[in-house]
Write a structure and sequence with these properties.
This protein is mostly helical. The protein contains 5 helices and no strands. The relative contact order is 0.14.
Length: 149
């Protein structure tokens, strides 16, 4: 039974992270921490790294904290919580940074309906270079209007 509860917690955490990505992006990245996020919309440096990458570090620390609690206390829920955050972060990096922004030159020829929809939705968001008016949505639960044939 504990395994089933752990699997449920993992999937709920993964889905909750989609909300957290949207919330953080809309109210933190395009809000009071725009100074860290703006180089993602308008590259103003030569480095491969962006100041925006600091957000990955924050969620990595949260995930590692849950792992630490699972190992060093009786809080076994830390395993599925930490894994949900970790796997969401890896998925986000794969879709957003590798597939969409091509930080590594992979998946360039992907051209199915989902790939086109994700790219289209992200392009809409990036058409605004400023802090305001950047339409925000998640990575996996993109509105269906972007998935045209």
């Amino acid at each position: 039974m504990q395994l089933l509860i752990g699997i449920l917690i993992f999937f709920l955490t993964f889905c909750f992270m989609e909300f957290m990505a949207w919330f953080t992006h809309k109210y933190v990245m395009h809000g009071f921490l725009w100074s860290l996020h703006k180089d993602h919309h308008k590259k103003d440096h030569e480095s491969w790294f962006e100041r925006n990458d600091a957000f990955f570090i924050f969620y990595a620390i949260v995930s590692m904290t849950f792992f630490y609690l699972a190992v060093n206390t009786s809080f076994w829920y830390g395993w599925p919580l930490g894994l949900g955050i970790l796997i969401y972060g890896a998925t986000y990096f794969l879709v957003h940074d590798i597939f969409i922004h091509q930080r590594f030159k992979m998946f360039r020829n992907a051209n199915n309906w989902y790939a086109r929809g994700i790219r289209r939705a992200h392009k809409i968001h990036h058409k605004h270079l400023g802090k305001e008016e950047g339409e925000c949505f998640g990575m996996l639960f993109v509105p269906f209007k972007y998935f045209k044939k």
